[in-house]
Amino acid sequence: MPETTVTVLLERIETLLDDPPRGEREPSLERLESTLTDGYAQALQLESDRLKVARRIGEVAASGAAAEAKADELASLTLRLETTGAELDQLRRRLASLSARARAVRHGSRLTA
Questions:
Q1: CA angle at residue 48 from 56 to 84, to 5 degrees?
Q2: What's the half-sphere exposure (Cβ side, CA atoms, 13 Å) at 111?
Q3: pLDDT at residue 111 in the model
Q4: Per-residue pLDDT tens over the stretch 65-80
Q5: Contact of 6 with 87, CB cutoff 8 Å
Q6: Local structure of 15: helix, strand or coil
Q7: What does DSSP assign to residue 22?
Q8: What is the helix (H) or strand (E) element at residue 14, kind and residue range?
Q9: In this structure, what DSSP letter does residue 23 have?
């Protein structure tokens, strides 16, 4: 399976969520917030893509195209819609975890300052 922007971003998030190796520090708040920003931007892009695909499904369904061509395109669009939705759901769940991690780092930073 080729790496997508979402896959690479999810890998970055997982790395930040993993406990640091023994003797290493927590990820910096800057890295956490930068990745959150990238993640939220990607989530907005996925949402936009989902809306475009959903709109296209409506257009194809309403078109006068031949039934076979219409069925093929609708099947392809439906798969894209499902895939994009699954990516978006997974990204949102991981972003929620990363946001909690960033809050914990912020809280810990204030305690030591």
A1: 80
A2: 6
A3: 42
A4: 899 999 999 999 999 9
A5: yes
A6: helix
A7: T
A8: helix 5-17
A9: T
Q: Which amino acid is at 84?
A: T
Q: Where are the domains of the chain?
A: 5-18+25-108
Distance CA 53, CA 33 (A): 30
And the tokens for 76?
């392809």
Q: Enter the tokens of residue 41.
A: 């931007």
Q: What is the pLDDT of residue 106?
A: 87
The single-letter DSSP state of residue 3 is -
What is this structure's pTM? 0.84
Structure-block tokens of residue 101? 């991690």
Q: What stretches in the chain show pLDDT beneath 70?
A: 1-2, 21-24, 109-113
Task: Tell me if 12 sits within 8 A of 35, measured CB to CB.
Answer: yes
Q: Residue 22 corresponds to which tokens in the numbers above? A: 């023994």
Answer yes or no: are the C-beta atoms of 16 and 27 closer than 8 Å: yes
Q: What whole-number distance in Å separates Cα of residue 109 and Cα of residue 113? A: 6
Are 10 and 90 spatial neighbours (Cβ–Cβ below 8 Å)? yes
User: What tokens were used for 29?
Assistant: 């708040």
